[in-house]
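DM from R.C. (forwarded with permission)

"hey, sorry to bug you on a friday — could you get me a structure for this? deadline for the figure draft is monday and I only need the backbone to look sensible"
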Amino acid sequence: MLPDRGRNGRNSRIPATPVSRGRALCRRVVGMHTAWDTVGDGEFFCPACGGDRNYQRLTGRRRFVLLGLPVVPRGTRGPVIQCAACQDLFDPDVLDHPTTNRLSAMLRDAVRAIVLAVLSTGGTGSRTVLETAVCALNGAGCDDCSEEQLVTLVDTLALDAGHATDSDSDSDCRPGLPGLAIELHEALGPLAPHLAPAGRDALLLQGARIALADGPYTPAERDVLTTAGCALTICSEDVTRLLATARTPS
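My reply, with the result:
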């Protein structure tokens, strides 16, 4: 059995003011009791502990207690999430926050998506661009990626998505942009709510520096970076400012 909890998710404290003997006796005679049942478990980010912890998902049955015996059902409680370490209780929406390990994986996927999107606009022919891209991936934790692997991966993605360019076309065709937009939103959208504005800006600037490694932005590169900024929930004015900032030598 687990103790009933207060509104803030912690054990109810004894009142600071003195309690008369009669009131204390009354509390022992009558009261409310919650019997908890475990209906699931897993790992989550505990706000109280500040790190990844195991949890149990609990549901409770409330009963009116007389002389220590539960006599009258008084409804249910929960579901709630209980941290296995600090024992605090939380609303189930605490599970919406990714664990530290999951957040790291999401960041790696986001950097990878931005790098591949920028390279897919035609940047694989520049050694400087590839070096900058590999540096960004290494910084995100993808230590086993080489320039040759990047070129092969971009070519494979282009073939799979049917990114064939008609060299005889006079139109300003940017093959694959709709597909790239979907991939960027899938990789960046779930991550954006868990990043501070500075973190979202840093991701976009990484893509911008890759695009600028071989010269000014091409129209296709600017389109991809604008799409990435939208997926990161950065407003269009800030996207324009960040892309201009990336062009300014430090």
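R.C.: lifesaver. Residues 1-22, 163-176 have pLDDT under 50 and may be disordered.
me: no worries. The CA atoms of residues 217 and 223 lie 10 Å apart.
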